[in-house]
Q: What sequence folds into this?
């Protein structure tokens, strides 16, 4: 019989050592329904591909308040109401203004700056407004109606890294008025290549959220304000899923849009083969986090691990299941499998028997010198 390589028996017989398989992987079988389709994170109206950003990793609804920190450079300007006070001498004459500006200074490793007549001022972790008020209070007994202005010259502590597929990866300083994700990408020169294929990941405090660049335009809640220390990473969409079994085109498929539903995945693979597939046995293999299973009311306490292997079953013989399949979202790493119909397996055996019988009859005719045409 034709073959494309060594048989399984040959491989096993020639092995120097055989390591037996471990115990089979425990998994949970879940029938697909509307509640499952939505509860498993399958709502097609969700704008984010791997979890929304707004409100999920502490994204503030308004611009974060910039606070001074070690390494920042500030300038302090002191104002007095009239000459003859602490900073403006009485013989100043017709000077242009009634203020002096102290030289720029960097916030020390102890988080302090020094201001004449006010002494050492703790500024690390404080807002500019709070520092201004502190300095004013310390000189008001010696100056004439003093006013203080603290200006942030540069702020390494308020920077965000923009990396990946952008024209000019850089450290970008957050504006005091607030800077959003799109603002940062623009200041880094924009996205290289096809913008519609770009995925933006925000990393903050050990957590991350990823989303399509296009969703920043279609869903403004994803275009959140960034915080000091955040990292923005832009890359091409590398998500994919695998299609196996009784579908027209088996293989690995990439996500060509923000979301792909189970129904769309079946369509992209050419649909079920009507002479081979059993529409009642469509399966999707996925590792699901425990929080999702708890939300679905599924007991998984007897299965170890942070994620639980789950097989979602869709019976496409039921018309209503197509609605659920059109809401159930594919995830990165999913495996879609459609089983063969039992009748097809019988047909394969019959075809094999026919081939054997046909080959044998031709051999008999050839041995007797009888033509086969």
A:
């Amino acid at each position: 019989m034709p073959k494309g390589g060594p048989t399984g028996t040959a491989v096993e017989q020639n092995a120097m050592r055989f390591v037996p398989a471990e115990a089979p992987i425990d998994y949970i079988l879940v029938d697909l329904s509307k509640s499952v389709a939505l509860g498993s994170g399958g709502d097609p109206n969700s704008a984010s591909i791997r979890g929304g950003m707004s409100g999920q990793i502490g994204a503030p609804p308004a611009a974060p308040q910039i606070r001074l920190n070690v390494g920042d450079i500030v300038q302090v300007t002191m104002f007095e109401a009239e000459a003859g006070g602490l900073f403006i001498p009485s013989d100043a004459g017709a000077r242009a203004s009634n203020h002096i500006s102290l030289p720029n200074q960097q916030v020390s490793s102890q988080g302090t700056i020094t201001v004449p007549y006010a002494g050492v001022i703790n500024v690390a972790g404080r807002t500019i407004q709070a520092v201004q008020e502190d300095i004013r209070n310390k000189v008001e007994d010696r100056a004439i109606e003093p006013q203080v202005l603290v200006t942030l010259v540069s702020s390494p502590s308020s920077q965000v890294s923009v990396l990946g597929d952008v024209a000019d990866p850089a450290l970008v300083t957050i504006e005091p008025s607030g800077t959003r994700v799109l603002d940062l990408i623009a200041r880094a020169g924009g996205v290289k290549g096809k913008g519609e294929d770009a995925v933006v990941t925000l990393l903050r405090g050990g957590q991350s959220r990823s989303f399509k660049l296009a969703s920043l335009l279609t869903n403004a809640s994803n275009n959140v304000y960034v915080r000091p220390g955040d990292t923005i990473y832009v890359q091409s969409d590398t998500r994919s899923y695998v299609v196996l079994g009784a579908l027209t085109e088996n293989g690995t498929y990439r996500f060509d849009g923000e979301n792909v539903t189970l129904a769309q995945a079946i369509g992209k693979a050419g649909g079920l083969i009507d002479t081979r597939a059993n529409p009642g046995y469509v399966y999707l293999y996925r590792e699901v986090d425990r929080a999702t299973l708890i939300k679905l009311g599924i007991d998984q306490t007897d299965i170890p691990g942070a994620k639980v292997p789950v097989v979602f079953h869709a019976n496409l013989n039921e018309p209503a299941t197509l609605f659920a399949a059109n809401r159930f979202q594919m995830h990165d790493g999913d495996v879609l499998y459609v089983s063969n119909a039992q009748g097809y397996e019988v047909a394969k055996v019959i075809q094999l028997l026919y081939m054997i019988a046909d080959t044998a009859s031709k051999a008999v005719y050839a041995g007797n010198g009888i033509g086969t045409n």
User: Anything to note?
Assistant: The chain is about 20% helix and 25% strand. Confidence is low (pLDDT under 50) at residues 43-48. The CA atoms of residues 261 and 347 lie 32 Å apart.
